Amino acid sequence: MKSSREAALHIVYRVLEEGAFASLAANEVLKDSGLDARDRSLAREIAYTAIKAWNTIDWALNLYLSRKKLEELPAWIRCVLRIGASQILFLSRIPPWAAVYETVALAKRYGHRGTAGLVNAVLRRLLLQKEQLPYPDVKEDPVGYISLRYHHPSWMVAEWLSRWGLEETIALCQANNVPPPLTIRVNTLKADVSFVREVLAQEGVTTHPCRYAPEGLVVDNLEGLEDSLAFKRGLFYVQDEASMLVSHALNPYPGSTVVDAAAAPGGKTTHLAQLMKNQGQILAFDTHEKRLYLIADNCRRLGVTCVELHLEDARRLGARYPSVADYLLVDAPCSGLGVLRRRPDARWRKDYREMEELAELQLAILKGSLGVLKPGGVLLYSTCTLTWKENEGVINRFLQEIPGVTPEDLSAYLPSLPRDLREQARRGQVQFLPHKHGTDGFYIARLRKIGS
């Protein structure tokens, strides 16, 4: 690759034209690019911006394409225009003249003189008129306005508007466009928080405490974190703060038996082992053998010895392992709408119909795994999504259809919750939101099995 923009072009082409996943495409392109760290970072920033704001960029470009619309142009030229527009519209630190000049140079390489002239004309018009783009009126068409202003699918915006209203939806969409902080969970089986902070500081990695998770740290500078001696020694695990709170909400005691019904890659499994002081038994299940290897690798690095791995469908656990567990964790497969800020392409891969199918799967897992619990046992249900259908909707249906299960107050297990979540917690459930709590969007519900 001759430049960061050319690398960005190849990433965007692979994702938007060939359907590749953004992180994989970026890693593959940049691995052999020959670019230095600074240029690799710029390439990723340009590409991820173009992918994340794909709908807005294509809409804006079509405003200034007269003879042919964007979809009628050659695929490489479409992507050349997209990376040029992403810089002009959203990356203010890049000088506009540089964005236009370098993009036109790419158009010459990946097209011909005529397409280079087209790219030059379109980008210059966009540059001159970017402050006057005719976005829909927010009052007359709030879905269209938010979708284009903040780069989210219309169906997703409509879903959130109906639930949270205009201001909340805009704030949520804005938060989804900001890269999240990197948080790590200190492995208290090996060290305490202050010791790990000192070790990381000696390696040039500075941190500060998380707001809600007692063993959580926010990493201030990311360079070299996973190459650090602290990582290799198993002193921490990279995990979002809300995800850490799932294990605290279950709160298993040392010596107990826990079933983790959908355990890979093992973040919550190993955290449960921490809370249990490596005493007792955790039966960790997954439906894919390769994913079980991930759990095993994490257990080895972190020094976790109380986990047994099993290849099994969570929907059959109750029949296969009746009344063996004091605690059951169902961290269910979900649509992942709470982690959109982590993956620039994720929002464009979602489909509303997927929520319907996932809600049925989640309910089936709850029903099929409940039998592993002893009477009086605790069930913890969690997802990293924001849809009512997959969260409250699933729990409501479960409670209606299965007798002998009741919600349980969460507040005692999550004492550092912000004020707006405390009332939810008393009802046995909480919904973390990126724009309010600075975490991934996570839903947690605690239930107790009171019947046989």
TrEMBL record:
Any Pfam family from its record, for instance, is RsmF-B_ferredox
Sorted alphabetically, the keyword list is:
Cytoplasm, Methyltransferase, RNA-binding, rRNA processing, S-adenosyl-L-methionine, Transferase
Q: Where is the active site?
A: 384
Assigned GO CC terms: cytoplasm
- Name of the top EC class for this enzyme: transferase
Q: Which InterPro entries match?
A: MeTrfase_RsmB-F_NOP2_cat (IPR049560), MeTrfase_RsmB-F_NOP2_dom (IPR001678), NusB-like_sf (IPR035926), NusB_RsmB_TIM44 (IPR006027), RCMT (IPR023267), rRNA_ssu_MeTfrase_B (IPR004573), RsmB-like_ferredoxin (IPR054728), SAM-dependent_MTases_sf (IPR029063)
Q: Where are the transmembrane segments?
A: none
The record ties this protein, via PROSITE patterns, to:
SAM_MT_RSMB_NOP
What is the species listed in this Swiss-Prot or TrEMBL entry?
A: Thermanaeromonas toyohensis ToBE
One GO MF annotation is: rRNA methyltransferase activity
Task: Give the protein's function.
Answer: Specifically methylates the cytosine at position 967 (m5C967) of 16S rRNA.
Name of protein: 16S rRNA (cytosine(967)-C(5))-methyltransferase
Which sites bind S-adenosyl-L-methionine? 262-268, 286, 313, 331
Which biological processes are named by the entry's GO terms? regulation of DNA-templated transcription
| Main localization of the protein described in the UniProt heading | cytoplasm
Query: Can you tell me which family this protein belongs to?
Result: Belongs to the class I-like SAM-binding methyltransferase superfamily. RsmB/NOP family.
According to its UniProt record, which reaction does this protein catalyse? cytidine(967) in 16S rRNA + S-adenosyl-L-methionine = 5-methylcytidine(967) in 16S rRNA + S-adenosyl-L-homocysteine + H(+)
Please verify whether the record's keywords include S-adenosyl-L-methionine.
yes
| Keyword Transferase among UniProt keywords | yes
EC number(s)? Answer: 2.1.1.176
Taxonomic superkingdom: Bacteria
Q: Which residues form the SAM-dependent MTase RsmB/NOP-type domain?
A: 172-450
Subcellular location field? Cytoplasm
